[in-house]
Design brief:
Blueprint lengths: L14 H6 L9 E6 L5 E7 L2 E6 L15 H16 L9 H24 L2 H21 L3 H8 L2 H18 L3 H21 L9 H17 L3 H14 L3 H15 L1
Antiparallel strand pairs: 1-2, 2-3
Helix pairs in contact: 3-4, 4-6, 6-7, 7-8, 9-10
Length: 259
């Protein structure tokens, strides 16, 4: 018995591409957007041994399982059709292979939302994290065995944290500080509920909650103006509008505050 060496396909070598975008070990992540030959935007992540490329929309690898946007979409439609036809989805269950395939698909979205964070595209990061949370809910409802559900649920606090981060960063980018603070407290509440209701997290440190609480304090300190700052801003506005009487009162309040 002998092995036949496969001949390489001319034009498939990506060495020149990798040399044009050298890997820098000092950077946490190297990510960029490019336009593909199909004129659609692609997301590229530079790795030490190569390059990872994903579609910006739809399933990251560009495939359409059973003609649907994703395998999750396909299973959701199957369950919906069964409910419409029989009035129940009691007979619909995800077996081991189904859950494994859904898990691998979820990992694709994980890599892509990390890229969106790096690119500052928080709307799409929010979209993909919300999509994986929807995946967790679906598996929790339809998995044939509890052990399959646990494979997904262990990541729920982390993905909730990342979803919260996307919402908060998006709000801060739009200079909506109050909305950012509201989003971060809602995220903390959701994660704490997961820890309280899931026995599998008993005794585990709530690292995601601690991170968000510390972040909330930093946001308030950084973006909430002090009383002195507010008075200075009001004083400048009064002077610009030639409201001299109001300006004099504000100046007196500012002097008393400084004293």
């Amino acid at each position: 018995m002998f092995w036949r060496r496969k001949r390489g396909v001319i034009g498939n070598d990506i060495t020149s591409l990798l040399r044009s975008w050298e890997y820098d070990i000092r950077q946490e992540m190297m990510v960029r957007k490019i336009k593909g030959v199909d004129k659609l935007v692609k997301i590229q992540m530079r790795l030490d041994l190569g390059l990872l490329q994903m579609e910006e929309e739809g399933r990251p690898d560009g495939k359409r399982p059973h003609g649907k946007e994703s395998l999750l979409n396909y299973f959701e439609e199957v369950a919906a059709k069964m409910r419409r036809k029989y009035g129940s989805t009691a007979d619909f269950r995800l077996d081991k292979d189904d859950c494994y395939a859904l898990q691998q698909e979820g990992i694709q979205y994980y890599y892509r939302y990390l890229c969106f964070f790096q690119l500052g595209d928080y709307k799409k990061a929010e979209r993909d994290t919300a999509r994986n949370l929807r995946l967790f809910d679906f598996v929790k409802t339809y998995a044939a065995e509890e052990k399959y559900t646990e494979e997904f649920e262990q990541y729920r606090p982390y993905v909730l944290m990342m979803n919260t981060r996307a919402k908060v960063l998006g709000a801060l980018k739009s200079k909506k500080v109050n909305q950012a603070v509201t989003e971060i407290h809602q995220g903390i509440h959701r994660i704490e509920n997961v820890y309280e209701k899931s026995s599998e997290f008993n005794g585990q440190p709530k690292t995601e909650v601690a991170f968000l609480k510390n972040w909330a304090e930093e946001i308030v300190k950084r973006y909430t103006p002090s009383k002195k700052q507010r008075l200075v801003e009001e004083l400048n506005e009064a002077v610009r509008n030639e409201e001299y009487e109001r300006a004099a009162k504000l100046r007196d309040r500012l002097n008393r505050l400084e004293d």
